[in-house]
Amino acid sequence: MPTRAERTPRRRSVARVVVPAVVATVVLGLVVASVTAFTLILPAARARAVAVATTPGTCPATSVQVVAHPDDDLLFMNPDVIHDIEAGRCVRTVYLTTGDANHDESYWLLREDGIRAAYATMAGAEDAWTERTLHVADRRLASVALDAAPGIELVFLRLPDGDRRGTGFPLHDHQSLARLWLGEIDRIDAVDGSASYDRAALLATIAALVDDVDADLVRTQDWTLEFRTGDSADHTAGALFARAGAARSDAAPRLVAYAGYPSWTQPANVSGRDLALKAKAILAYAAHDPKMCVQLRCVESLVTALRAGRQYVVVQEEPSAHRHGAQRAAMERDRAVTGALHQRAAE
Prior knowledge:
By secondary structure, the protein is α/β, with parallel strands linked by helices. It has a domain at 62-267 and 315-346: Rossmann fold. It has helices spanning 4-45, 72-76, 80-86, 105-122, 177-181, 199-211, 233-247, 272-286, 301-308, 319-346, and strands spanning 62-67, 90-97, 129-136, 139-146, 149-159, 188-189, 196-197, 217-221, 254-258, 313-317.
C-alpha cells in the first residue's frame, strides 16, 4: 500500500489535469450561453416583423433564391431575403435537396415544416400554406404558397443530401449534386420518386423556375470555391447549377452569390433590427429541426449564433457576365470530366 507521502504527489498530479479541464469546460459553456443569448435568443424576443400581403399580381419584382438545403437561405442570405419580403417583392425560394443527412422522410419533412414556419415569421403571418404541384420543364415539383401572402413561395426538388464532402449517402446510392456536376453519375433522383434529372434537365428546371416568375434577381451560394475547400459540396454544386441555370433563362436576372460556412471567420456585420428578425426566423425553423439545437446548453448553438450575425456577398454578376462565366465553368467541368474518362480508359 502506498504511503501518504506517495499518494499526495499523485493527487496533485490528477488535480493539475482535472481542474484546468473543468475550468475550460465551464468557460466554454459560458461563452456558448452568452453568444447564443445575445445573438439569437434575446434579439429574437424583441423582433417585430412587418405583416405583408404580397401577391403575384401586386409585387413590383421577384427574387429567386436557389439553395442546397432548407435553412441555407436563413443562415447565409438574411437579412437580404427579409428586406425583399418587407419591400413587397415576390419571393420564390428553391431547395435543391432535402438536407436529409441519410435519414428518411420522417426527418426531412420536418425541415420543410421548419422553413415554412421561418418564412411565415419573416412575413409577419400565420404559418398557413397552400400546397400545389408545379409542372416545370416536364417535371413535377412540390410547392407551397403562404396564404396571407401568396407572392411568397417555396419550391422543393427533394434531391438527396450529398453529405458535406459530396460523396452522397448510402440511403440514396451515394447520389449527390457534386457528383452530377462533376460527371461521376449520369442522373440524380428525387427521394420522393417525383422526378429524375440528368445535368441538362436540372439546368432546364432551374432556368424555367426563374423564367416562370420573370425574376430580376437570383440569389445562390458560393460557386467560387473549389470543392472540399471549406464549404459544403452541396452548397458549391448547387451554386454552380444555379449559375448555369440562370444563364440559360430568358429573364436575364442579376446573380448574387453568398458565402457559406467560411463566413463565420469574418467580422459580424448583422445587427440591430436585422439581427433580431434573422434570429427570430432561425428560431422558428429550429423548433422543427431536431438537428439544430439553439438552446443555451447546446455547444452547436454557438455555430448557429455566429452565422446569424453574418451575411457576406462573395460576388455579383450582371446577366452578360454570368452567362459568360457559367459557360466557362461548364467548359472547365467538361474538360475535367473528359480527362477523367480518358484516365479511366487508360487504366
